[in-house]
Amino acid sequence: MSRQELKWLIDGYVAGEIPDYQVSALLMAVCFAGCTAKETADLTMIMAESGDMLDLSPIPGIKVDKHSTGGVADTTTLIVAPMVAALGLPVVKMSGRGLGHSGGTLDKLESIPGVDTSVSTERFLELARSNGIAVVGQSAELVPADKLIYALRDVTGTVESIPLIASSVMSKKIAAGCDAIVLDVKCGSGAFMSNEADARELAEAMVEIGSAVGRDTVAVISDMNQPLGRAIGNALEVEEAVDALSGRISPDDPLMRVSMVLATKMVQLGWPGSSQEAVTAKLQSAIWNGSALMKLKTLIDSLGGDGEGVINGSALPKAKKIIPIKARETGIIYKMDCEALGKAALLLGAGRATKADVIDPAVGIMMKCRIGDFPGKGDVLAEMHVNDETNAEAAEELIHGAIDLSRNAPEIPTLIYGVVEKDIRG
Ligand code: URA
Ligand code: CA
C-alpha cells in the first residue's frame, strides 16, 4: 500500500469514519501476507502522528529511550535508567503498565507509597531538565491509533504479527520524542517471541523502522526462558533494583549482565564514538560510587515517594505471609515455563488479568533457583509473598508445574542471543 492509502485508512479509523470490520480485514491481511519494510515504516509514522508528538528539544543532549517487549522478573528499566542518568545522559521516558503475565515499570514505581506517575507533559519536561531523569506514564494523547488498533488486534486474533508488533512499539517510542532507542527483545517461554528466529525477525523489523525514520535503534535479543531476576512482583522488583544499584548483586548475575548491556548501548548512542569498554567501566563505577542509586532516589522523590525509605526498605509495602515452595523430588532443573511463573504472580495479585483488576503492590514470587540447579527434595525453589490466600494453592501448583525437575542434564539457555544494529548514517 502507498503511504497515502495507509494514511487515509488509519486517519479515517481514528476519526471514527472507517468501521472496525474494514480495519480487521486489513489486520488479517497483514497477518497472512506481512508488510514490506516501507509499508511497516509508513504505518509506524502514520500511527505516531495520529496524536501528540512530544518535543524533547528543550532538553539538551541526545535523548535515548529504552523499551522491553515484555518479560518476567525484568526489572531492567529501574536499574538501567538511573545508571545511564548517573553518567549525565538525560533519561526521559514514558513507561507502560503490565500486560498479562509481564510486568510494567509504572506498576512497579506505583508500588511505592506516594508515587504518582501521571504527571503533565510540562512537569515531565521540568523533571527531566532539573533531575536528568524522568520516568512517567504515557499521556492519553499519545498514539491514539495504537490504542484503537491494539484493542482490535486483541479481539480479532491478530496480535502476533511482526509488522504489527514492530509498528505498535516503535510508533509509541517515536511519539515520545526520543532521538535514539535501545530495545530489549525478549525471547523464550515468557515472551511474545518464543524462539530465536522470530525474536531476531522482530528485532530486525524494529531496527529497520528506526533507521527508515531517522532514529538510531539498537535491539538486544535476550533470554526469557526463565525469570531474568529473582523478584516477580512490583515492590519486590523495586527492592531488587535497589539491591542492584547498591552493588549487592554480582556483575555476573543475569539481571546485571542484561542491564549492563542495555545501559552501555544507551550511553553509546548518546555519546557517538565512545567505546563499549570505557562506557561499561563508567557505568560500573556509577554503581560502586553510589551515584546511580542516588538517581533512583531522585526519581522516586520527584514522583512523590520517599526515596530514602525505599533504599533502606522501610517505605516498601510487605506481604503478610511468605510461603516457601519446596521441591517435591530431587532433580536437576531442566526447564521453566516463564509465562506460568508470571501467571502465578498474577494469581497472587501482582498483575491484572483484566483492565479493571487492582494490583496488590506487596505480593509476588521470589525465585530461589535457575535452570541447571540441582535441588534436593524439600529444598526451597521459590517463595510466595502473599496477602490474600484465596488463590495461593492454585499459584503454588502453577509454580510446581512451571519448574521442570529432571534426571537429565539441561541445556542452559544463552542469556544474550545477539544485538541487531544498523548505522543510519553509514
Ligand atoms: N507491545 C506493544 O506495545 N505492542 C505490541 O503489539 C506488542 C507488545
Ligand atoms: Ca548510528
Note the topology.
Layout: H1 3-14, H2 20-33, H3 37-48, E1 64-68, H4 76-86, E2 91-95, H5 105-109, H6 121-131, E3 133-137, H7 144-156, H8 162-175, E4 180-187, H9 196-212, E5 216-223, E6 231-232, H10 234-245, H11 254-270, H12 276-288, H13 291-302, H14 307-311, E7 321-326, E8 332-336, H15 338-348, E9 364-367, E10 380-386, H16 392-402, E11 403-406, E12 416-421
Parallel strand pairs: 1-4, 2-3, 4-5
Antiparallel strand pairs: 5-12, 6-9, 7-10, 8-11, 9-10
Helix pairs in contact: 1-3, 2-7, 3-8, 3-9, 4-10, 4-11, 4-13, 8-9, 11-12, 15-16
Bound molecules: uracil (URA) and calcium ion.
Which short descriptors sum up this protein?
four-stranded antiparallel β-sheet; single chain; Aldehyde Oxidoreductase, domain 3; binds calcium ion; binds uracil; four-stranded mixed β-sheet; 426 residues; 2 domains; Pyrimidine Nucleoside Phosphorylase, Chain A, domain 2; 45% helix; alpha/beta
Shape field: globular
Radius of gyration: 21 Å
Helix count? 16
Through-space gap between termini: 28 Å
β-strand number? 12
Verbal overview:
The chain has about 425 residues and is an alpha/beta fold. The chain has helices at about 5-15, 20-35, 35-50, 75-85, 105-110, 120-130, 145-155, 160-175, 195-210, 235-245, 255-270, 275-290, 290-300, 305-310, 340-350, 390-400, and strands at about 65-70, 90-95, 135, 180-185, 215-225, 230, 320-325, 330-335, 365, 380-385, 405, 415-420. About 45% of the residues lie in helices and about 15% in strands. It has a four-stranded mixed β-sheet with strand order 1-4-5-12, sandwiched between helices. The protein has a four-stranded antiparallel β-sheet with strand order 6-9-10-7. α9 links the parallel β4 (about 180-185) and β5 (about 215-225). The longest helix is centred in the middle third of the chain and has 17 residues, at about 195-210. The protein is globular. The mean pLDDT is about 95. Calcium ion binds near residues 216, 423, 424 and 425. The site of calcium ion has 4 residues, from loops.
